[in-house]
Amino acid sequence: MESELRIERIRPGDKVVALAGNPNVGKSTVFNSLTGLNQHTGNWPGKTVTNAQGKYRHKDRNFIMVDIPGTYSLMANSAEEEVARDFVCFSNPDATVIVTDATCLERNLNLVLQTLEITPDVVVCVNLLDEAKRKKININLKELSKQLGVPVIGTSARSGEGLNELMDAVYNVTNEKAITSPLKINYDDTIEHAIAILEPSIEELLADRLNSRWVTLKLLDGDKTLLKALQKYLDFDLMANISVAKKLKEARDVLTAAGIENDLFRDKIVSHIVCTAEKICAKVVTFESQKYNRTDRKIDSILTSRLFGIPIMVGMLAVVFWLTITGANYPSELIATFLFWVEDRLTDFFVWAGTPPWVHGLLVMGIYRTLAWVVSVMLPPMAIFFPLFTLLEDLGYLPRVAFNLDNLFKKACAHGKQALTMCMGFGCNAAGVIGCRIIDSPRERLIATITNNFVPCNGRFPTLIAIITMFFAGVVAGPFQSIVSTLLLTGVIVLGVMMTLLISRILSQTILKGIPSSFTLELPPYRKPQIGRVIVRSVFNRTLFVLGRAVAVAAPAGLVIWVLANIHVGELSLLSHCAGFLDPFAKLLGLDGYILMAFVLGFPANEIVVPIIIMSYIATGNILELDNLGQLRELLVSHGWTWLTAVCVMLFSLMHWPCGTTCWTIKKETQSWKWTIISFLVPTITGIVICLIVANSVRLLGLV
After folding, report:
1. What is the helix (H) or strand (E) element at residue 90, kind and residue range?
2. Which of 542, 619, 589 is nearest to 684 (CA)?
3. Which ranges of 222-368 does DSSP label H, i.e. alpha helix?
4. Exposed, middle or buried: residue 530 (CB in 10 Å: 0-12, 13-18, 19+)?
């Protein structure tokens, strides 16, 4: 089973360390601080749950750090919990580090105590000591270690404090230089009697491969997922053993006689663990003030209130968009100038080399110019938007967004976590689809996946911003133009959110019927963002990653566009013939054939929709960049654009098929062509219907 989880050892002496913990305790910060760039990510076999592995050398040992999914429990109620449990149980890590939050230790001890029932090779990391100090919370780490029977190390991972001591403890545990004697949790007499009946038979069969007491508890609990995992790990079925089956029935009879059925059994186990955590914390945690989280509560009383929560959220979104719009213009111009200067040098080279014109056209005017447009238009907004978005995430605000929208998504019979995946879609819809993994319910995960495209990704922002500026904000001169553009763009985004809720509701009442599931949403404490770390992480992990994928699909798109625009049948190019074929249908949508063709050809990357329109109108066969938006507006108006055309293009840009990268990601995540096709059709049909209604209503009213 270890090989299936793809743990990469450099050499036999390497030690595998599992990093576990609740969400929002700084586990990933510990992981990133230790491993740096020596890490890679992937999927757990058979699961759409991300894993991360990294290398770290301490003293004379190499450690393979495995960041397992954040979870509150090992009871396996979700894919994340199942993966975390199976890794700790069956992958035989040399040590398991449980990262806890010093500001809410009692809740975190639930996971610690469950893990101690599985393995003695545990190191407890009490992280966020700096936050605890700020809130005047004191933790007696020595006493906590004594109570738990395993090493306990305090850290502030954001500043690197205590990480060396943590690895010292891990080194000692993995090299048997530290003797652990984990706390044994004793349950009530009836449960202990049932354990005593069954455990000897289990212990004999397991032969020290697993903790027999823990396996006994899980058999009494009737955990079906664990039984499957046990059978796979042991290569035999425990339940097929006559002695085990007989003793299990006898033990369950004892529980039944005492009125303890399966659900009550689990409740008693959990309750006892919670009570044990309370008793331990009463001995080791002291508060200098009972108002330690008063500031956070005051802030939350405003940011999550019914009256101000959503308006403030929309206002913050508008500020992020305003900074993105105003900040991206100048660097975008600089990058475009440089890239098109390079294009001129490439042209000089091809002329000097005497290559045929079609080679120059295909490689430079087609592929390179498409890439130049994508990079110059897409890179600056992403380089601004992603760090700002990550700063809000690092600050602890995004969970508040999910809290504010939870009731709306519940009314749409969808999952509250969909708010978070929707936010991820603002940067890249493919990233938003991957983010849907955090939703446990398969039904609600599919709803979030299908509707993620209703929020515009970074590739659609340039189109929306350009049209808003040319046809609507252009009536306002001076610095107020960017403010008007921001307000209109924010309105478009709000419309996208409303459509997300509406379509989620329709899906939940038709092809994906079901009742919305509940979930635990933790509001982490507000923290001072680490601006340097945020910028590096957002640029490398998000901006360059998304840009790389866009470039990969834009290059072949540029080739196809150039071929269609330069191969003629009669007097018209193939592009013009295709546009003419689409024109009647496009007119019904308030568009024209060239616009609809641009959306079709922009399937690989939304960034190239506008340049294709420009190329088609100018009929030069090359993607061009006009000097300013004023010239572009004149070009569009001369080809029949009105304010209605602009509105319909914006609506269709907001609601049409996902780009190629997103479709590929949906197929990979759902492992189904059926749901990929549905994810393609739902926004497309919605966009067509909305544009039909708007365009023809305006025409009937005689407003154009």
Report:
1. helix 79-90
2. 589
3. 224-234, 242-257, 262-284, 294-303, 309-353, 357-360
4. middle
The tally of domains found in the chain comes to 3
- Of 142, 174, 206, the domain-final residue: 174
Residue 206 and residue 142 share a domain: no
Q: What share of the chain is helix, strand, coil (3-state, %, to 5)?
A: 65, 10, 25
pLDDT tens, residue by residue, 459-481: 787 788 878 878 886 666 666 66
Per-residue DSSP letter, 103: G
Would you say 99 and 25 are in contact if contact means Cβ atoms under 8 Å apart? yes
Rounded mean pLDDT, 77-95:
81
158 and 215 co-located in one domain: no
- One DSSP character per residue, 39-64 reads EEEEE-TTSS-EEEEEEEEETTEEEE
Averaged confidence pLDDT in the chain: 84
In angstroms, the Cα distances linking 92 to 172, 215, 499, 673 are: 17, 15, 47, 37
pLDDT digit string (tens) for 625-660? Answer: 555 667 778 888 889 999 999 999 999 999 999 988
- CB-neighbour burial class of residue 133 (10 A; exposed 0-12, middle 13-18, buried 19+): middle
Answer for the pair 368, 657: CB distance below 8 angstroms, yes or no: no
Place of tokens 């399966």: 262
* Cβ atoms of 29 and 128 closer than 8 Å: no
Note the pLDDT tens digit of each residue in 136-178.
Answer: 899 999 999 999 999 999 999 888 899 999 999 999 999 877 7
Strand pairing report for 122-127 and 152-154 = parallel
Is 206 within 8 Å of 99 (Cβ atoms)? no
Q: Give how far the C-alpha of residue 459 lies from the chain's centroid of Cα atoms, to the nearest Å.
A: 18
Q: Are residues 360 and 251 in the same domain?
A: no
Tell me which DSSP letter residue 518 carries. Answer: P
Query: What single-letter DSSP state applies at residue 512?
Result: T
Query: For residue 566, what are the contacts with CB-CB under 8 A and spacing of at least 6?
Result: 358, 361, 573, 621
CB 96 within 8 Å of CB 119: yes
What's residue 43's pLDDT? 47
The tokens describing 244, both together, are 């085990």
For residues 432 and 525, the answer to whether their CB atoms sit within 8 Å is no
* Separation between Cα atoms, residue 158 and residue 83, nearest integer Å: 26
For tokens 């790990």, what's the residue?
Answer: 233
Angle at 455 between CA 450 and CA 458, to 5 degrees: 120
Q: Which domain holds residue 197?
A: 189-260
Checking 403-408 for CB contacts under 8 A at 24+ apart, the result is: 403/304, 403/309, 403/521, 403/523, 404/304, 404/309, 404/310, 404/313, 405/310, 406/521, 408/501
Q: What angle do CA 667, 672, 675 make, to 5 degrees?
A: 85
Q: Hey, which residues does 156 pair with through a beta bridge?
A: 161
284 within some domain: no
Three-state DSSP at 101 gives strand
Tokens of 606: 């939304």
CB 316 within 8 A of CB 345: no
Residues 132 and 233 in one domain: no
